Amino acid sequence: MVVRTLPQYPIKKGEPAYKIWIFEPGWKGELPLITNPRQLAEQKRPALLPGHRLCAGCAAPIIVKLASLAFRGPTIVVSATGCIEVATTIFPYTSWAIPWIHNAFENSAATASGIESAIKALKKTGRLPYDHVDVVVFAGDGGTYDIGIQALSGAAERGHDFLYILYDNEAYMNTGIQRSGGTPKFAWTTTSPVGSVIPGKMEHKKPIADIMVAHRIPYVATTTPAHWIDLMKKVRKGIEVNGPAFIHALSPCDRGWRHAENLAIEISRRAVDTCYFPLWEWTPEKGYMLTDRSLSIARNPKLKQPIEKFLELQGRFRHLLKPENRHLLKELQEYVDAMWEDLLNRATNAPK
Amino acid sequence: MKRVYTHGNRAIAEAALVAGLKFYAGYPITPTSDIMEYLAEKLPEYGGVMMQFEDELASINAIVGASWAGAKAMTATSGPGFSLMAEGLGLAVITETPIVIAYVMRAGPSTGVPTKSTQADIYQARFVSHGDYIIPVLAPWSVQEAFDLTIKAFNIAEYLRTPVILLSDATLAHLWESAVFRDRGEVEIIDRKKPKVPPEKYKPYEPEEDGIAPMAVFGEGYKVLVESLTHDERGFYIQDTMVQRRMVQRIVGKIIKNIDRVFEYETHYMDNARHAIVSYGTSARSSLAVVRDLREKGIDIGMVRLKTIWPIDEGSLRKTLSGVEKIFVVENNMGKLVWDIQRIMHDKEVIPVSIIDLDLPSPNEILEVINEWL
What we know:
The complex is a heterodimer.
Chain A: H1 37-43, H2 60-69, E1 75-79, H3 83-88, E2 100-102, H4 108-124, E3 134-140, H5 142-146, H6 149-158, E4 163-168, H7 208-214, E5 219-223, H8 228-240, E6 245-250, H9 254-257, H10 264-273, E7 280-283, E8 287-290, H11 292-299, H12 308-311, H13 326-346
Parallel strand pairs in A: 1-2, 1-3, 3-4, 4-6, 5-6
Antiparallel strand pairs in A: 5-7, 7-8
Helix pairs in contact in A: 2-8, 4-6
Chain B: E1 2-7, H1 8-19, E2 23-26, H2 33-42, E3 49-52, H3 56-68, E4 73-77, H4 79-84, H5 86-94, E5 99-105, H6 122-127, E6 137-138, H7 143-160, E7 163-169, H8 170-173, E8 176-181, H9 241-257, H10 259-262, E9 265-268, E10 275-280, H11 283-296, E11 301-306, E12 308-310, H12 314-321, E13 326-331, H13 337-344, E14 349-354, H14 363-373
Parallel strand pairs in B: 2-3, 2-4, 4-5, 5-7, 6-7, 10-11, 10-13, 13-14
Antiparallel strand pairs in B: 1-8, 6-12, 9-11
């Protein structure tokens, strides 16, 4: 029998693998962005500690951990009500190794605005013993697409310097899989049930990242946990820009999407491969820029997969694969193709 | 009529269908979401529409709109959502719009414990919006009553042209019990009063003798003005003390005048009782066990259970409690209804038995307090 021992995970021998992040007052510098897995394991600790109670197979903590590995120094995290908020802070425990604030459902961007403004004021009067303190919001699709969009839009318009990371599991998973503005067309949820008359949700997903692009904030991007280097780089860019940044991360939910627990990463990958969820970033200077796998697909269209590849793993789309619903599948494929064509036209680095 | 074994939230949804619900607007919130989920499947079969909105602000304003378009309308929420509905509720009050809000309490403040309950929100249910008004608040204690009082809530809302709150809690929401659900035709269903005058004589806020103005909705040939500013009987904004007084008197008066329709309570073991427990909602379930325990020990104690916790018919409650020596008010909060009982029964000894418990106050804890005072 092969005895497997864990690698020497901690930075120093004898130190715990996980511990609270402490930056002594007067701490200067920037944590480096590392994308080499070995160096990452040896030199970095995620801000989300183990023991949280998110479901087995959930992609959200992967997004949070990857994002936190790209933080550059002292960081305050704001969480809207949602899976991450509930499951990482069940009394009397917390999984957060860094300062964390929860607020109500609709106002994470407003709370972040307040924190950022206070930091600015403290800095101006010399009362902040750090070079920079970053504010990062983690909010789900309900708290972003629906109830939270007013606060988000307001904060973007006022230009507060914070990074808003949307982990989009495409429904209200925390309260039991109700449809949201982020639920895709024809998906089953408990409030858009599939029957013989109505095939699931009847409306398309709101283009939230494009809505944020329309605010002309300094940085907007989409990403998934499967494309982890892409995710970390984008988070770092979002933190470094001066002003609001928005990252839309797809977050497969095995409970709500009805897929096996070990498929979150595979489904994220297929979402990009089928162009259901293209990877891109946007800056006012360069416009839309495709990244990672989506750039490869743009350069070599043969890599693009049919939408069934994305749907077939998920129970919420099971009805679409029935022979009598072929026309719905066709409609969805045409929609995805049209959106992809539209993005190719807008992307400045896509081959013309 | 059918015998069922189900939970409180399902009972509310079923009763709403029987009462004639045609439009439900909601937003997911624990512990209320299953009302919406059930109606998502069932309401279309009854010719109605269930629509999920982007938040509670939209939900309550949507049902106000739907009610003015002629549908019986309802939403359901819990504490944090109800806080957001404050403004919309005030709009329904001043425009005298019949709507029903199923309010399933959870522990607060703020996010609190979403899956567990207290009875801390009875004042929020009464007074969440600003201004002078009274809105009926009904508090069921069993699955059967969740069904019955939901139908009553629709009837009061339609008859009195007012928002009505059905105040359940997280314990009752997911408590499974057997109950009897009646069908349409087996229960009294009241629809809103329609104008009998010709359109040129119709004033949307002019009350008849019973204090209630007939309600014409959009598209019936009448001029309908839905005005959130202080308005006279025609619905025109008038910034005048007398108009303000008249309007507030109308909104409050129609409820007070018809308090017999609204106020309801029941008594247990109250004949010749020396002491009494006053309770409501799920904490009354523990209280009844306590009453039985004490009766076995030879102590003459009874229970008064309020089904309507606002407005309270003070005269009839005084009469019921006039013969007792000590009154214990059992509730699952820091002591709220006890303020009312102390005011109404100011010449008696009224003792708060306020036990905060995320499930139910246990009979033993209640007994401990009562034994100290007996």
